[in-house]
Amino acid sequence: MENLSIGESSRSTVSLVRDIEDDDVASGQTDNSSTLNTSYLTPLQQSLVFELTTRRKRIAKAQRRIEFWERYEEKQAKEKQAGKRTATDQFERDVVDEEYLDDLIKQRKDRLAELQQSQTLKESIMESADAAHSINASMAAVPPGPFPNSPDISLCPHDIAPERQPIRSLVARRDEAALKFLQLDDQIKRAQRERYKILGNIQAARETTANLYREIHELKEALARKKTDELDISNSVTIDRQEDAQARIAALQRAINTARGKREMVKGVLRGLILESGLDWSKNKGLRKLVLQLGDDEVYSSDEDVDLYTDEEETEESSDEGED
């Protein structure tokens, strides 16, 4: 469209310039027609004639050309301004996104393919018409031979010598061969389309298989990471539990040591009080037991056994005396 507009504008420009020149010729304002025989005039007179006639005509002609080119530039500017269409005017919608442009390009490509096929069909029709014209002309120039009715020659056109076969039979054979060729070509094209379709299916299956392999690999990696995380968590939990148990044991040990220290301190204080009081603790059973308990554990256990043994003896003696 732009090339057509440029061509039309150039033709209009040439026509307008020719109109200006024709007006100049019709009005007698060309340089040749305005030339006067001023050889007999003086230089001052010649300059006056030039200023009054030729110069004014040239200035008027230049003025007309300037006006023409101004109008031409204004016209070009208007056409250029009118040619600036918005997206709404060009695509009939306000928002033109990438998806819409892809669809539009696909439609234009399909339309271009249709036009190319139509052009190819037209060219083949023109070639066929040209060939048919030459064949028809040669057929009209050659009359049919008498040999189809001849008894000594077979009616089959294939058995007739090539130089004696009529053009009509050759044309019929050519048409049959062309039809067979077209049928075979159609079969080949169908087979090619099926082959392309099968290749596309194979490619899609390969892509699907690759995607499945990729997903399986990702799942295996995720499972391995999950197992590793679980093992780390269990190890950390075990370590934490062991650390907690050790901390508890240490705390209990410290508490036991503290209690033992307090116990020893209390034992020492009580032992000191009893000893400093001046009482004879060995005669009093309760004091004797208390003093023995305030001693060491081993001593306490042995003394307690002795005390228990003496208690048993006393109970036996009291029982014997009661029987007597």
Describe this structure in words.
With 324 residues, the protein is mostly helical. Among the domains are: 2-82, no CATH class; 173-259. Helix content is 82%, strand content 0%. It contains eight helices and no strands. The chain is elongated and about 180 Å long. The termini are far apart. One of its GO terms (cellular component) is nucleus. It comes from Meira miltonrushii. Belongs to the CENP-H/MCM16 family.
Q: What is this structure's SSE topology?
A:
Layout: H1 2-27, H2 31-34, H3 43-83, H4 87-91, H5 98-141, H6 167-277, H7 285-293, H8 297-323
Helix pairs in contact: 1-3
Keywords: Centromere, Chromosome, Coiled coil, Kinetochore, Nucleus
InterPro entries: CENP-H_C
Protein name: Centromere protein H C-terminal domain-containing protein
Low-confidence stretches: 1-11, 28-35, 146-160, 298-306, 316-324
> What's the helix count?
8
Helix fraction by DSSP (H/I, runs of at least 4): over 70%
Number of strands: 0
Coarse shape: elongated
Taking all residues together, what is the mean pLDDT? 72
Gap between N and C termini? 153 Å
Largest sheet: none
Rounded radius of gyration (Å): 65 Å
Give me some keywords for this one.
mainly alpha; disordered C terminus; 324 residues
Report a brief summary of the structure.
Helix content is 82%, strand content 0%. The protein has 324 residues and is mainly alpha-helical.
